[in-house]
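@here heads up, posting the sequence + SMILES for the magnesium ion run so it's all in one place. Ping me if the SMILES looks off, I pulled it from an old spreadsheet.
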Amino acid sequence: MADEQRPIHRKIIHIDMDAFYASVEQRDNPDLRGKALVVGGSPEGRGGVVATASYEARKFGVRSAMPSKTAQRLCPHVIFVRPRFDVYKDVSRHIREIFSRYTDIIEPLSLDEAYLDVTEDKLGIGSAIEIAQQIKQAIKDELQLTASAGVSINKFVAKIASDINKPDGLKFIGPSSIEPFMEALPVEKFYGVGKVTAAKMMAMGLHSGADLKKLTEDEMSRHFGKAGKFYYQIVRGIDNRAVQPHRETKSMGAEDTFPYDLTEIDEMYTELDKIAETVVKRLERYNLQGRTITLKVKYSDFRQITRNQSFAKPVGDLKTIAATAKSLLLNSGVDDVKIRLLGISLSNFGELPQKTGKPGDAGQLMLF
Ligand SMILES: [Mg+2]
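bot reply: prediction finished. Complex structure tokens:
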């Protein structure tokens, strides 16, 4: 197997809020609870579009992106509510704050949906299922809303998984279950397969992942272009796309609390070298470089300082990061200090060189 085709075992969670806008409206207005509800444009005049339908409205076939007039025809008693984006944004910020307790590798897809890479979670919990449970519980406790989570080793499977037990669901698909799961999956459920492609696949007698698997990589490319190659890999459980933190990730770094206080400059430098190495590994993994390097120092009396230096161009190499951290430390004063913690982080990432295409945009799917 070629290197780029080997599956990378990450711990990925896809979190998706349940009927987000509608649930927020029902939470804030008890009169709307248990009611068929559409958040979106009014059906009057030329008519608006459904942004989100409550589960009560979905029972009547009301769906997102449907004209509000259609929604009213399907469900005559449906209540239309204007969206309050400021409120949704606030809730979204709070949700991301909850995510950030566990990881900095967060890729938001919209206000109510995100991928999280918890391969190395901040709290050292280790179990992605446990983390997903805790996040769901925090969202419930702090926001009185429910979310569904999908847990797997890659983005593709995690996203499909989050949809399986909605609402308030949690579905784990482990490495050994991925291939059977993908084989059983109907082609129209394949993330990125639109209606046109699905119809083409059906016409070719391809109804499930198992059917797709019978085609060679060349055949997949010939029939479905660049996306064909993506499907070829995905049906074998291979999706090495990294969770891309975008600009949403404000900083990435590492820190270490020492078993005894550091008093010698040599020890401090040695520790900074180690921490810088960890930081560089993390940056490389997520293809990030930052323009600002920040040093954090905590003393034995728990006093804490941060010092930073910014660069004209983004940096991410070990030499620069370690040297900058050391000079920042030196400038902060190292005489007669007892240091219990050192940390280095990079921020000010700016634009990333990689794009994160929408599913279905075949040109941007090839991110491996
Ligand atoms: Mg949602």
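MO: The first helix runs from residue 20 to 28.
MO: One more: The domain at 251-347 is CATH 3.30.1490.100 (Dna Ligase; domain 1).
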